[in-house]
Amino acid sequence: MKKILLAFSLLFSLNAKELRVGITPYPNAFILENIKDDLKEIGYELKIIEFNDYILPNLALEDGELDLNMFQHEPFMNEFNESKKTHIVKVSEVFLPPMAIYSKKVKNIANVKNNALIYVPNDPTNESRALELLEAANLIKLDENAKFKTVLDISHNPKNLIIKELEAAQVPRVLDECDLAVINTNYALAAKLNPISDSIFIESLNSPYVNIVAAKKGNENSKQAQDFIKALKTPKMKELILKEFKGAIIPAW
Hints:
Layout lengths: L1 H14 L1 E7 L4 H6 L2 H6 L2 E7 L5 H7 L5 E6 H11 L3 E9 L3 E3 L14 E5 L2 H13 L4 E2 L11 E3 L5 E5 L13 E4 L1 H6 L10 E2 L8 E6 L6 H10 L2 H11 L4 E2 L2
Family: Belongs to the NlpA lipoprotein family.
Subcellular location: Membrane
InterPro entries: Lipoprotein_NlpA (IPR004872)
């Protein structure tokens, strides 16, 4: 009987369809590792491909090297499509990783000193998002007319803050060198920083920057895309995310 089951398992494995999903490592790798078995049960061999930036996962999706990716929010995707002439679309919302402001020198956002050095991500949507967070913290004022805000759109900077742009993945690495750093949650978690317990100011839960699963246009309603979403968005996975990340990652279902 064991031999029959083993043979069946091997045959099933050989017939399984490879599902290639691109991600940035944390928390996405943790989440996908926990749905591998569920996907295997319905005929898919999940291949998780990790990237350490926000550019290559979309280029790989556009080129057909990936079936899906899970790392970005919709405003980023839309700006990427516009600037890179790609054809990437949303499949489904997954979770909100709230962006937050971190510091090893300042305990209270109200006590930020004049001429403080602040690092923010340098890609258009996340820089805009970071600057909006600094505005929400009453540190700066922004020109409301700008679609994607940059440091050039700061209309009021009463403390003469020095705001520098840096690739998002690198921002946690300069936390010791600056007064404040605005960090995306995936990179914060990878650096052992929890936005709930370690930040001094956090994004509102009403944020539009919910992370999504994306596909190349034309594939968003494919059976494999829909099967992936069904395996991902379950009560079991929701409970696991809430338990593992203690509110730092908020499921969107």
